[in-house]
């Protein structure tokens, strides 16, 4: 597949309308490992830049801290998601590989950047739509993630995968809260 605007646009549309097929297509491309990591890095950079634009448009002063810190934070979140999708899926009998998980999660983040751009446009022209677009983005994210995990690991039940995602998010949030508390970084800490 040539990496041109038409092909990328077609794959974004396929991801939004038939995410399991898009995931299978991405896995079937057998992208070289260095290109997978390059895509991961590009998505992180775009996330940080678009995030900065969003914050500035909302009248904030920008990121608290440096762009480098935000890039490291975004990298940690996305890489954590790759590890979680890979590890939890494999623990539950899935057959996905780390390189395929990497490309799928990077692509999913790229598609979510499209939603973020729509949010930015709504802030400029129809601010009242921002909340609705945010809600739609969350619904599409969960739907695409569920289908990507099914394609990656060979799972057949969307309900079980969705419930697994919800439980995994809660478990990771609890673990993160405990770790942050142990480090003295709890919100509103005493």
From TrEMBL:
Taxonomy of the source species: Bacteria, Pseudomonadati, Pseudomonadota, Alphaproteobacteria, Rhodobacterales
Keyword Chloroplast attached: no
Protein's name according to its UniProt entry: Yip1-like protein
Cell compartments where the protein resides: Membrane
Alphabetically ordered keywords of this record: Membrane, Transmembrane, Transmembrane helix
Organism of origin: Roseinatronobacter thiooxidans
GO CC terms, sorted: membrane
Transmembrane segments: 37-57, 69-89, 101-125, 132-155, 161-186
Residue intervals of the Yip1 domain: 15-178
UniProt membrane topology term: Multi-pass membrane protein
Record keyword Transmembrane present: yes
Pfam families noted in UniProt: Yip1 (PF04893)
């Amino acid at each position: 597949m040539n990496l041109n605007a038409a092909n990328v646009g077609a794959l974004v549309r396929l991801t939004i309308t038939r995410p399991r097929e898009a995931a299978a297509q991405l896995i079937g491309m057998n992208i070289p490992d260095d290109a997978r990591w390059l895509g991961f890095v590009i998505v992180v950079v775009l996330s940080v830049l678009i995030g900065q634009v969003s914050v500035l448009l909302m009248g904030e002063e920008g990121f608290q801290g440096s762009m480098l810190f935000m890039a490291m934070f975004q990298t940690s979140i996305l890489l954590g998601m790759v590890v979680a999708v890979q590890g939890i899926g494999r623990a539950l009998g899935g057959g996905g590989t780390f390189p395929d998980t990497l490309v799928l999660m990077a692509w999913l983040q790229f598609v979510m950047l499209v939603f973020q751009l729509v949010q930015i446009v709504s802030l400029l022209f129809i601010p009242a739509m921002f909340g609705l677009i945010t809600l739609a983005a969350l619904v599409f994210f969960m739907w695409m993630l569920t289908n990507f995990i099914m394609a990656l690991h060979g799972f057949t039940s969307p309900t079980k995968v969705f419930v697994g995602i919800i439980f995994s998010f809660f478990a990771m949030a609890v673990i993160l809260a405990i770790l942050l508390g142990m480090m003295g970084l709890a919100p509103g800490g005493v």
